[in-house]
């Protein structure tokens, strides 16, 4: 059971605050009865209407997936490539979608949910949700080059926010290195462009963490539902814990 205004926000009717105003002003019915109090809770079998229009009251679900390569992080693909939705088994009945995107050839942690409010908060740059990537790059970055990443580099004519960067290992014989980069922005191909900007093109890229969440125990192509305490902490990170 969830509070009515949260279910409405999750269904995309309006923000939680605006949904509360719709309730108190008499625009909302639950199972045919007008509701004007904010304490009402509803389940997936309750019918909710706003100005006589039914909304989807599917209960929220939160999934952590380890995306393999050659899988697109979209609900569908016009090129008929495998999507993250294809990797979900038949036990997941809810219609979910990915929170943000990982490139076709990028692997690692991606979240899927049907909670539109949380997804919007997590992807909004002002909330600065950290994401850590590990990249195999051409060449071995110098300390000065890594320092430039920490200060921000120019990408597509704009300076990136400061990032945490670290050289994890290097292979002088093959002239490659493994670099860790933590950012809170989410622009298109950002990590690849940042490393390209310091002269070290990405050969392989994996997202290792999303906020406090890790891939521990989740193999490539596998997924798990988040635990209630993880959902609560994720909402706190996204400033939705009230």
UniProtKB/TrEMBL annotation:
<dbReference type="GO" id="GO:0005829">
    <property type="term" value="C:cytosol"/>
</dbReference>
<dbReference type="InterPro" id="IPR018496">
    <property type="entry name" value="PsdUridine_synth_RsuA/RluB_CS"/>
</dbReference>
<dbReference type="InterPro" id="IPR036986">
    <property type="entry name" value="S4_RNA-bd_sf"/>
</dbReference>
<keyword id="KW-0413">Isomerase</keyword>
<dbReference type="InterPro" id="IPR050343">
    <property type="entry name" value="RsuA_PseudoU_synthase"/>
</dbReference>
<dbReference type="GO" id="GO:0120159">
    <property type="term" value="F:rRNA pseudouridine synthase activity"/>
</dbReference>
<dbReference type="InterPro" id="IPR002942">
    <property type="entry name" value="S4_RNA-bd"/>
</dbReference>
<dbReference type="InterPro" id="IPR000748">
    <property type="entry name" value="PsdUridine_synth_RsuA/RluB/E/F"/>
</dbReference>
<dbReference type="InterPro" id="IPR006145">
    <property type="entry name" value="PsdUridine_synth_RsuA/RluA"/>
</dbReference>
<keyword id="KW-0694">RNA-binding</keyword>
<dbReference type="Pfam" id="PF00849">
    <property type="entry name" value="PseudoU_synth_2"/>
</dbReference>
<dbReference type="InterPro" id="IPR020103">
    <property type="entry name" value="PsdUridine_synth_cat_dom_sf"/>
</dbReference>
<dbReference type="InterPro" id="IPR042092">
    <property type="entry name" value="PsdUridine_s_RsuA/RluB/E/F_cat"/>
</dbReference>
<dbReference type="Pfam" id="PF01479">
    <property type="entry name" value="S4"/>
</dbReference>
<comment type="similarity">
    <text>Belongs to the pseudouridine synthase RsuA family.</text>
</comment>
<protein>
    <recommendedName>
        <fullName>Pseudouridine synthase</fullName>
        <ecNumber>5.4.99.-</ecNumber>
    </recommendedName>
</protein>
<dbReference type="InterPro" id="IPR020094">
    <property type="entry name" value="TruA/RsuA/RluB/E/F_N"/>
</dbReference>
<feature type="domain" description="RNA-binding S4">
    <location>
        <begin position="2"/>
        <end position="60"/>
    </location>
</feature>
<dbReference type="GO" id="GO:0000455">
    <property type="term" value="P:enzyme-directed rRNA pseudouridine synthesis"/>
</dbReference>
<dbReference type="GO" id="GO:0003723">
    <property type="term" value="F:RNA binding"/>
</dbReference>
């Amino acid at each position: 059971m969830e509070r009515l205004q949260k279910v409405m926000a999750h269904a995309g009717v309006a923000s939680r605050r605006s949904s509360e105003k719709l309730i108190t002003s008499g625009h909302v019915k639950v199972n045919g009865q007008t509701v004007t109090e904010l304490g009402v809770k509803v389940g997936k079998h309750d019918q909710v209407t706003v100005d006589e229009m039914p909304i989807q009251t599917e209960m929220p679900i939160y999934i952590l997936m380890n995306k393999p390569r050659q899988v697109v992080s979209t609900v569908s693909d016009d090129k008929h490539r495998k999507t993250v939705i294809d990797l979900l088994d038949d036990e997941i009945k809810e219609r979910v979608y990915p929170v943000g995107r990982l490139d076709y050839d990028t692997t690692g942690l991606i979240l899927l949910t049907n909670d539109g409010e949380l997804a919007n908060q997590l992807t909004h740059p002002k909330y600065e949700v950290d994401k850590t990537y590990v990249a195999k790059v051409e060449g071995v970055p110098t300390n000065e080059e890594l320092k430039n990443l920490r200060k921000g580099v120019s990408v597509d004519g704009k300076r990136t926010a400061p990032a945490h960067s670290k050289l994890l290992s290097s292979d002088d014989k093959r002239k490659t290195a493994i670099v860790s980069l933590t950012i809170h922005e989410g622009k298109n191909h950002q990590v690849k462009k940042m490393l390209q900007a310091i002269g070290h093109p990405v050969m392989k890229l994996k997202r290792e963490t999303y906020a406090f969440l890790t891939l521990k125990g989740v193999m490539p192509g596998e997924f798990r539902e988040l635990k209630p305490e993880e959902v609560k902490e994720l909402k706190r990170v996204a400033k939705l814990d009230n």
